[in-house]
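Can anyone check this?
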Amino acid sequence: MLYPMETDHMLHGNVRYYSRAFNETAYFMFTFAGITPEYMRENNLGMAAVEEHSYYRREIHPGDHVVVKTCFIDFNEKWLHVWSVMINRITDEICAVNDQRCLHFDTERRKSTPFPPAVYALGKSMVQDRPEV
């Protein structure tokens, strides 16, 4: 649900709200592929969104209930592509779409690095076609 503190000066959902919602769902997907906080901390690895596009279709207002549906549309040896759509739960209207490419990297060397074979295989198995919206 969108709360009043998450609105802009015109009482619409602010960009920070959308960014947080899309970021949270991306990290939720990461955990299903084995890219957990523990995995990243214990191995000095991280994920970084290196390209992101958001498309706003409908305004959301305080009290609106939304759901964000997310999937991987590509999973490469060093990066993944996350696609998400925010939907108003009452009207079923699409409020926003987010498209992110995220890089897997070594946090000490600050360079991209391949996923371990098990993570790569699991992530690759989760890839699906981008849904039409």
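Reply from J.R.: I decoded it. The chain has a mean pLDDT of 96.
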